[in-house]
Amino acid sequence: MAEDSLATTFLYTLSGEIQSGDFFEFDSLYCKYSFNQGQDWTLLSGLSEGITQISTKSHTKSYLSNPLVIWNFPLELTYSSTTPFGWPQIVLSVYGLDILGRDVIRGYGAIHLPCQSGEHSFSIPMVVPKSSTIFQEILGTILGRRAEFLSPAFIAQGAGREVTRVRSQGRVVVKCHVILRGFKEMGYSYARE
Amino acid sequence: MSKTQLFSPDIIEEISLSESHNEGDEVDKIETNTVSIEDALLQRLELKKQNLQKKLAGRRDSDSIQIAPPENNSESQSGSGLHDRLKQKLLAMRESASESKLEGGNVLLEQERVQKGRKKEDIEMSLIRKPLRSLPPIATDRGSSKSPVVSFQNENADMHLNQERSEGDELDGIFSRNLLDQNDETASDATEIRDDEDSIHSETIPFISQEPLDILVYQPPRYRYAAERLEQENTVLFAKQGLFPPENNPVTLEQKQGSDLELRVAQEEGLYVPEVMLPPNRTLIAMEHRIVREKAKNWFGEDGQLKGLTGKFQTSSKKGLFHQRKELFSPTNHLIQYQPSAVFPNLDRQSVISNPNQTDIISTNIHLSVYISSLRFTHHWLFSNEHLLCCTLYALQLQYNRLKERDSAEMHFRHLQALRRQLRSLKAEFDKLMLQSLTGIEIEQKANDVTQLKQEISEYRQLRSVELEKEQQLLKRIFKVWSQLKQLRIEQGYVSTAARLRIKKTNVVDVEEDRVNFLTELEEELMELKEEHDEKLSGERINYEVAYDQWRRDQGERKKLLDDSQGSALSIPPDTPPPVPVSEFVEAEVRRRLNEEYLAARRHPGQPVLTPELYLNMPISGQIEDQKELSRRREIEKLSFFIRVRVNGETACETRHRKLKQDFIIDFQEQFQLELRHKPESVILQVYQASFNPALLAEVPCPLPIDIPVQKPATNPMLQSLDFTYDKVMHVKLGLGAGIPSRGGGILPYTTGVLNSSAELYGQSGSNCTERDEWKGYGKLAKLPLDAEKIRATLTSSRLDPNDPRNIPLLQLLRSLPTEDSSNTFRLTRMDLVRPFISQREFLSNPNFNTIKEKHQFELSSARPVQYDDELTMLADSPVRTQPSLEDIQPMSDQDFTPWHPGTEKFYQMVKHDISKQAEIKTPDYTLEEVVIEDPVPNTGILTKYIHQLFSPKRPLQPKRVPRRTLPSKHTNIRELNLVLRVLQGYNFPTRVIEPDKPGPRLGRTLAGQWRESSSAHVSTMMSEIQEDISEDDTPNETNPFIEIRFQGTTYRTKQSLGVNPCWNEELIIKFHTPVPTSTFSADSLLSSTDILYFNAFDLVRVDALEDERLRANTIKERLQYRWLGSFQIPFHTILVNSRVDGTFKMQAPKMLFGYERADRLDDTDMQLSMFITLDPLIKPHRSIYATQLDKDDKKQIEKFKHETDSLGNNFPDREYTVSVCDIDGRQVIVNRYISPLNPPESLLSQEDPCNLKSLQRISRFVSLIPFLPDSQCLEGLSDVWVPAEEFLKLRCGDEEEHATLLLNYFLFLDIEAWLVLGFGIPEGSTSYVLSRDKRSRSFCLWNPSNGERFAPSDVNCPLLHIYTVLSAKKIHFNIQSSTKPSDIIFDFSNSRKWKTCVVAEGIPQNSLQPSELVYTPPDLAKASQLQDTIQHRLQHRIEKWRSRMPTHWNRYASDMLNEQLIKCEESYPHIPEFELKQAFEALFTTFQIVGFPIHLTPTSLKGIEEQVYTTGIHTCQEPGVEYVLACYVHPYPSDVHSIWIYLATMVPRE
Fold this sequence. Notes:
The complex is a heterodimer.
Chain A lengths: L9 E13 L6 E8 L5 E5 L2 E3 L17 E13 L7 E9 L5 E10 L5 E12 L4 H10 L4 E2 L16 E16 L12
Antiparallel strand pairs in A: 1-5, 1-10, 2-4, 2-6, 3-5, 6-7, 8-10
Chain B lengths: L8 H11 L3 H14 L2 H28 L12 H21 L4 H14 L4 H12 L3 H9 L5 H17 L3 H15 L1 H22 L17 H16 L11 H5 L23 H14 L26 H9 L28 H5 L3 E14 L5 H22 L1 H28 L5 H52 L6 E8 L4 H54 L22 H15 L7 E8 L10 H12 L1 E8 L2 E5 L3 E2 L5 E12 L6 E7 L5 E7 L18 E7 L24 E12 L25 H10 L10 H9 L23 H6 L1 H15 L8 H8 L26 H15 L1 E2 L6 H4 E2 L6 H12 L14 E2 L10 E10 L3 E2 L26 H10 L12 E7 L2 E4 L9 E9 L11 H5 L4 E13 L13 E14 H7 L1 E7 L9 E2 L10 E9 L1 E2 L5 E2 L8 H17 L8 E3 L5 E3 L22 H13 L5 H4 L10 H7 L4 H14 L3 E9 L3 E9 L6 E5 L4 E3 L8 E8 L3 E5 L19 E5 L3 H4 L14 H22 L6 E2 L1 H17 L5 H14 E10 L4 H10 L11 E11 ...
Helix pairs in contact in B: 1-6, 2-7, 3-4, 3-10, 4-9, 8-9, 9-10, 16-18, 17-18, 19-20, 34-37, 39-42, 40-41
């Protein structure tokens, strides 16, 4: 650890998976993910964004009353940073195919990555923006163009939320393991190493 | 078991109930233990069981003995007697127990049977069942000892057991001892035992009874009434044990003092008795009772009250050092506590582990509770005469009441009497001493005391008479006012105030006594006066005698002198009158005088005592006829008021608006609870008159308590009456008004009132330690500057009366003042207590915090990613600086030539820093469209558009431009940014000239019509296509122009076109690379980009390179030549800011191009290119920082004009009306301050007529030569900064507006009518031009300051497209015409329908930001030639480098020749002496084929020059034997401004 005493960055490694989605009424879903982080954070390795396969629910009724959409999509990345400001967030946007096979947004969600080492599992509640009028909603449903966020990263930021109306819709379970390194040398304390 | 039964039945019940469920476990445990123990132990246990039974039996017996009538236990029986008796009983018990032999099991069985047989209450059942369950005696014993109730016996039991094991048979003895011990311990135990003995009776029977069962008698538990029990306890126990039962009745005085003692209340004698600290009332009564019982009378004072300490405060701390330290370092003392978070693997993520300690931190708040009760006006402008009188009456009555309450006359009287008594005794003592004829200090002291007493007596006497007089006069005034009020009411015929005075008349009971008292007092005073007089007399008599002797001697001498010198009366002293002897005391006269005084000032003896009482219950007349009064009352009802509470200068809350009532009292009755972090510095109540614009009547500071209790005090807060005055003169028709002279003379008071309110603080304060405890009691005194010595000196010298209650705090302060040795007390201010997050040192040493700090500093001022280099340190280290000055800036290294001042960048950095410090960040609000995509609702507008589209004729050749969607600037996650560029058409391109002597396709064989074929942008593919398609019939002298675009080092190219007006209509996608690879396409990084788009028009010339003519039949060998035609540049920044650039742009074409000539020879038609550039995705980053601070001088003006422009903006939303701009200090100043005449350089002016066109052109050229640097580039998107001319010339760089203002100011100096035009132009967007009017022709003329060109407003090619604002030195004209095009605008500024004119206030021109005179440095020839050499060498070097694959030959001869020509070019600018140039080359033309052009460079850095030369592509010439010609000329202008000319040519030798 002697060489770490002069460290100017700390490392954050996350490995895990986007396990499953629980969208009660929707099926055939896929999930896009990306990470949103501050300026000081640099991605050292790993895919900063990706897209899962389209996954369909199991139809055996007896197994579970509310079957899940399973993706089991692996995540693995390493960040380095000098400051915790702009702590990375995982941004998920789940799309599904509607009856006519068009891509329709099923939910947006974001959560800060855990800042403690160890195993974490969290279920991210998802929301979709509501159409501003009923007419537009009907129109959107017919045309398969529902109200969407211009950028999925919008859900990870605070500004401009006041103009939107959203409806909650399902949840996505993400499980991950976190390894931290060099935090203590940079003057940050955390519970376990 | 025996222990258990020692307790009263209810305790047993408790135990049994509570332990019934776990008793079984206990039993098991014990049993297993017992199993493991050896047989011997078992035997012992058996033995013990028996013993216990014996004991119980014995107890039964003892009960029978013990149950005696209570009267047996008389009070006289002492404690020891009881013990003896108990011992006896126990001995008897032992004897009887030894006889009893019975096994426990049998007993129990029998007992059960009994229970079945008889019906018992449930409680008793459980009581009895208990022994059944806990049969093994030890088990029960232990089980019961578990209970906390019997904890002290637990030890006994354990000890007991141990002893049992060792001693076995001695158990009984131990038991008895044990019992006795208990008996000794406390009296209360004794009572318990007694209680038990009563109740045990019934229970113990089954165990011990050896008699037949039917003897068993069950009794319900005996209930004793509380009163009975208390009495018993009182009589039997308390008295016996020396205790005192608590009593609720207070102790009477007789009990305290006995009947013989007389009470003396010091207060009544006028002495000050400090408040005694006494315990709460209940405790006090108990204490008094005890004292009475103990007959310790000395605890009571003379007044029958308990004596007590008077000091409220401790003078020294009782906390030890250790204690303090512990407190200091205890974790709770820290405001921030670090609690490491933890992951618990077995817990869910959701289950947050809360830390109970954290609540402590939160509750450090202070609650402020403000209660506003009512508001009463003591004077109001709507008062009538009656109100005025009423208020006077009220005030008088109040005064009277206060006087009566204090009753100082009476107090003084008592004091006086006490003093007199003292004097008498003192005198007696004095006499005694005199009799003993003792001399010395003692007598002297006594005499002193006597005189002092006398003095005091006379003082008090005077005080008393003053008080009495005051009271009497007050009474008189009250009566007078009341009679006036009554009179007034009768006169006006109605009542409008509720005041009513009742005079209570109390007849004196004994008239004679009253008179006697009166006379006695008079006599006493008389006596004292006489004594005083006598003393005075005795003193003065001696004086008189001395004086008289002197006088007589003087007289004698005088006579002698008179006799001696008859004539000369010079030295004779004047005749002095003899000294007056001291008058005798005339008793009768003094008595008469006193009597008069007494009668005047006091109540006459025998007269009844009159007490006025004011009531507010007079009914106000409802129906009155006086119209004025009615309207006055209506007016009152219109008024309403409210109170605003301001805490620490911030408005905290306000009451509801309440209407004023007829009695001028407003009831608010509102309470506010506020939570504060610190103790508030000030709480101010503001009285407002509610209206549309609430008027502040008064501000009343609300006094706050010094102590902050932790809990809210339960008692109601003390209402405080706060007076306020509204010092505004009110003239009112209906009322009397306020502050104006009244009709009856004098001046009416201002509006005044009384606010009843209270404010109290409670809650835990984190700042208790700031004020030392002993300082708390002294209110404002504690806030005095801590000059302890001064305070001490003042207090000691003033000799305060310790008997005056008012002085008590001061005296206590004096006592608590720090002594000299501890005077340097360290005190914290409250604000210092706010603990920093971390220590400063840690903050500085930690790299993280440094990063954060720097980031914060740079957040506003920088758009680039933070770099930790000198730039940063420059800002970080810069001390406080008011204005950036050029003197601060050290020139940077001189390695690279820059046309502007080397310190420019730093200057702008400073400006930026200053602005960003003052600027306000405005985050533009989001709109839904910026966030959410959804299909728009088809409204009629869209529908009609669709319908229109449906029916409109389709014109595919004239497609309409669909506007791109603009991405909001907040989107920073753009992956890719492209420039979309559509090159449409060129105009006035030059025609290639075929040399007459070398005709034909040998040279300049071009490919006409080539452009029709599609070709890719890549040169290689294009080449191949060209190769394929050669036609013989191409027109040789037509140019084949194409446009090459160079951006960020990459070249893009259009296809070739043909002719003078070529048409491309080609779209190019140019990829934008961010300057720093990692950074995103954020607005900041984009705005800092300094890239420039270079557009170059080239002519593609094919040169036949076939050397062998014989091969011509089947071989084509050609060489391609790119001949530069013209260029044009747009900074990327312009595109970014304007989001699209669209129009026809003038290309900078060399005026003379060898080998080419203009088709149209007209001067004003330039080579032009029309195109359209935009971004994909279309982002419009705008930094949201504006300088918001208005200059204080211009503030009013700017606000006024802004208001104007806002209203104009409603009509013309697209127009940008400019009123104020940001100056270098970051303030908003009015634009006109930049306009004032400035002297141009002398050398530029024509001698004969400075105003002729040539001179003007020279000036404008000079201005345009000053290098150009957009503000938005240096300031990275901060608002445009206008630099004054002096700095502008020094920096030698600026934006359009600096150029424009300078040019304008020059024009103004030359007395030319000129204006500053602000508008929109291409390509730069928002721009500034100068408008001038010719003196003779009265025609207008627009000057482009950035290149010095001149346009007529009607010129179609004018790059200024829109005009919004036109400014002169004193006026601002806003364009309100329907068109903004210069060609459509009517420049008649007096026409108010065309121009909205605002006149700037007079002071502005004087307040100009421009200097009064500009000083120019003379042209520096040496520097220019040096620069010339530098450029020449550099370019030569570069060209050689670019042509590294082939040799580069330089033709020196031609170079020198061209150099001369360049000087001519400069002289004759803007006209190029084309003919002369041609002539000069005439000789060369014969042997060389020359392609070349002069470039007049826009002043840029050396690198920029290189880049511009590179883009001409002249280095690409690959003809064999080509010779290069490079000429460079730098012409110096004043103030280091240079004009740079470069001539480039290639000379290819003809065969």
